[in-house]
Amino acid sequence: MNHLGLRTTAFAGLLLAAAASHAAAISGGTPLPVHLKYAGRASPAAPALRSSAALVLDATHSSVLYSRHSDVAVPIASITKLMTALVIMDAGQPLDEQLEITAEDRGPRRGSRLAPGTTLSRGELLHLALMSSENRAAHALGRNYPGGLPACVEAMNAKARELGMTNAHFAEPTGLSDENVASPEDLSKLVMAAAKVPQIREYSTDTRLEVRVGRRMMRFGNTDSLVSRPDWKIEVQKTGYISRAGRCLVMQTVIEDRTIVIVLLHSFGKHTRVADARRVRKWMEATLLQATPPAST
Fold first, then answer.
1. Total tally of structural domains belonging to the chain
2. Which listed residue (112, 132, 133, 183) is catalytic?
3. Is residue 296 part of a domain?
4. Among this protein's residues, is 78 annotated catalytic?
5. Phi and psi at residue 37, to the nearest 5°
6. By the 8 A CB rule, do 138 and 153 touch?
7. Nearest-angstrom CA–CA distance, 200 and 159
8. Are 179 and 169 in contact (CB under 8 A)?
9. Which residues contact 121 (CB under 8 A, 6 or more apart)?
10. Cβ–Cβ under 8 Å, residues 287 and 81
11. Could you please report the per-residue DSSP string of 79-96?
12. Catalytic residue, candidates 51, 81, 183, 238
């Protein structure tokens, strides 16, 4: 069996396991499901995506244009940080309050350029968590949430229920745990909620930020190369990666004057998720162009 076959088989197994166990992972009560309206098969043929799970939602018309395994919860990696940001903003803590990175924020898998002892504002940590997917920044935000890390995680799961993310479950605020799971349908709701918060929109789509770490200034960039492309109008975005989640990308963007939510999960290869986003855009532009009647003469 070739590598692609092994990957497909592995993800199929992951989907089956997720479908069988996601109900047990969801804490608290179950809200009434929020149903999406599915459009008929798009024309021309559906985009040839390399992501194993995907959803393309036309938010302007509340219709799903494309879906693949869109209702099954799988690990979502650092897409988690959008939920972390939502509950941090909901808590209303001062964004200019200075917070210190401590040994608690290091963790075994939390690679970071922020050394313990670094002091940054809550706003700067939020900015880095969303733009650069900074894990210690996200953990410090959760640790300094009112009531501490357990209260932050509880708030994340409560927010998921509020948004109708019926298959989602969160175990911690960085996304490094594969216990943080959601379906593409869940994540479309998270993206749309995040897009309503000006700070999340700004921080997630910024291209760079310089902060003082110790005695020197340090520059951070965006993990999503599409935000710097002038031909893309991205309103909110987040990337993610851990081994069990693969490469992930979610965004709300504007294509042909329509607000479009794109969810791409479990992509293999460093550039696959970005290439898939481009495929979605080209497919949509071709579809809409074909659907537009010719001008009368």
1. 1
2. 133
3. no
4. yes
5. -90, 120
6. no
7. 16
8. yes
9. 95, 96, 97, 98, 99
10. no
11. GHHHHHHHHHHHHT--TT
12. 81
Both structure tokens of 9? 């088989």
Question: Across the chain, how many H-helices and E-strands are there?
Answer: 8, 12
Range of the domain at 60: 3-291
How do beta strands 63-68 and 37-38 pair? parallel
Look at residue 297 and tell me if it is in a domain.
Answer: no
The ranges of the chain with pLDDT < 70 are 1-44, 109-110, 270, 289-297
The CATH number linked to 57 is 3.40.710.10
Q: Which residues pair with 55 in a beta bridge?
A: 67, 263
Task: Give, in degrees to the nearest 5, the angle at Cα 154 between 173 and 184.
Answer: 60
Q: Please name which of 59, 125, 45 lies closest in space to residue 263, comparing C-alpha atoms.
A: 59
Q: Which residue among 67, 78, 188, 267 is the active-site one?
A: 78
**What does the buried/exposed string (b/e) look like for 102-113 if buried means 16 or more CB atoms within 10 Å of the residue's CB?**
eeebbeeebebe
pLDDT number for residue 19: 44
Provide the whole-model pTM: 0.84
**E-only strand ranges, the chain:** 37-38, 53-58, 63-68, 74-75, 98-100, 119-121, 181-182, 208-213, 216-221, 234-242, 246-255, 258-267
Which amino acid type is present at position 63?
Answer: S
State yes or no: is 133 an active-site residue.
Answer: yes
Coil, helix or strand for 289? helix
36 C-beta neighbours (distance < 10 Å), count: 17
